[in-house]
Specification:
By secondary structure, the chain is an alpha+beta fold. The chain folds into two domains: 135 residues, no CATH class; 168 residues, no CATH class. It is built from 13 helices and ten strands. A hairpin with a 2-residue loop joins strand 4 and strand 5. The longest helix has 22 residues. The mean pLDDT is 88.
């Protein structure tokens, strides 16, 4: 309950922004509010079943396992699950700026010696989780709006489902309604540094948008360091980007392949189209290849019954 209370602060900032998305209001966040929202989204990903199960099922590679064993010894933990909970506790309790300061310290060690840093680093959180957090909060926020006649579906694994490799994904999706999704876009991808990422994104340039920035200290001087000009009160203004139906179906395909137990949808027709699209591309694009035949038949029957009446 203590952690839930601490989580309520970034959750509150995020919910205000989400309500703005729903209502059609202008979308703006201060730098401090943006940091809180990104922190909240990262926490929601980390506390999810997929991440937690890694610690309970011990599904780490050899390098990560060695680093985790060293961290457990430093922190005097007996169970691997305790590392997961302690990492979560520290991220929730620690201010966003302090997390990034610790991330910078760890990154300096990694840049100096990538291999031994995994066993030499001693800090409040396991280094791989710290590096992952620091990487994710540098993603750009984009707001996608489903094209008329399509909608986003929600699965148990869709809040934080990603496109690409888990540690270096192109996009991370957070579906907030059938109409809207908050999307974290890789900074390298946004700045056309595609070669730094493995593979190729499934989504085009039309879904990228860098927000307008209003600096509290005035316009950014040409010969001035951006970091020195930053303020927690700087304002970022976002716009809603219309996602064409095919892109919405692709996002839904990612959600369908990330699902574990539940699926939520509003329109039977849109869900049916998403399932057909998933069936068409799942062997080429995805790894789980779930069979939705029974649901597809039910939707088809429901639509025919509706049309008949």
């Amino acid at each position: 309950m203590k952690l839930e209370k601490l989580l309520s602060s970034p959750e509150s900032s995020s919910s205000i922004f989400i309500r703005k998305i729903w209502s059609g209001e202008d979308l703006s966040l201060t730098r401090a509010q943006l940091a809180d929202m990104k922190k909240f989204l990262c926490i929601m990903m980390y506390r999810g079943e997929a991440r937690r199960s890694q610690y309970y099922d011990k599904t780490f590679d050899m390098t990560a396992s060695m680093s985790l064993m060293k961290h457990m010894k430093d922190k005097k933990f007996e169970r691997l699950q305790d590392v997961w909970f302690d990492n979560l506790k520290w991220i929730i309790e620690t201010p966003a700026d302090d997390i990034l300061d610790e991330w910078s310290r760890a990154m300096n060690m990694v840049l100096e010696d990538p291999i031994s840093s995994l066993t030499k680093y001693m800090g409040p959180i396991h280094i791989l989780e710290l590096l992952d957090y620091g990487h994710r909060v540098q993603y750009y926020v984009c707001i996608w709006e489903a094209e008329e006649g399509s909608e986003f579906i929600i699965s148990e694994g869709s809040f934080g489902a990603y496109e690409g490799a888990s540690g270096n994904s192109f996009h991370i999706f957070f579906i907030v309604s059938p109409r809207y999704a908050i999307v974290l876009a890789n900074r390298g991808f946004m700045w056309d540094e595609i070669d730094a990422l493995p593979g190729k994104t499934w989504f085009g340039d039309h879904l990228r948008a860098i927000p307008e920035t209003i600096y509290k200290k005035g316009p950014l001087p040409e010969d001035f360091l951006t970091e020195d000009h930053m303020s927690p009160d700087d304002v970022f203004k976002y716009r809603r980007i219309i996602a064409p139906k095919k892109d919405v179906y692709m996002v839904n395909g990612i959600s369908l392949d990330a699902r574990r137990k539940s699926l939520t949808y509003k329109s039977s027709a849109c869900m049916y189209k998403s399932l057909r699209y998933y069936d068409k591309i799942k062997k080429e694009k995805f790894s789980n290849h779930y069979d939705y035949t029974i649901l597809r038949r039910k939707l088809f029957a429901d639509m025919n019954r509706t049309h008949a009446s």
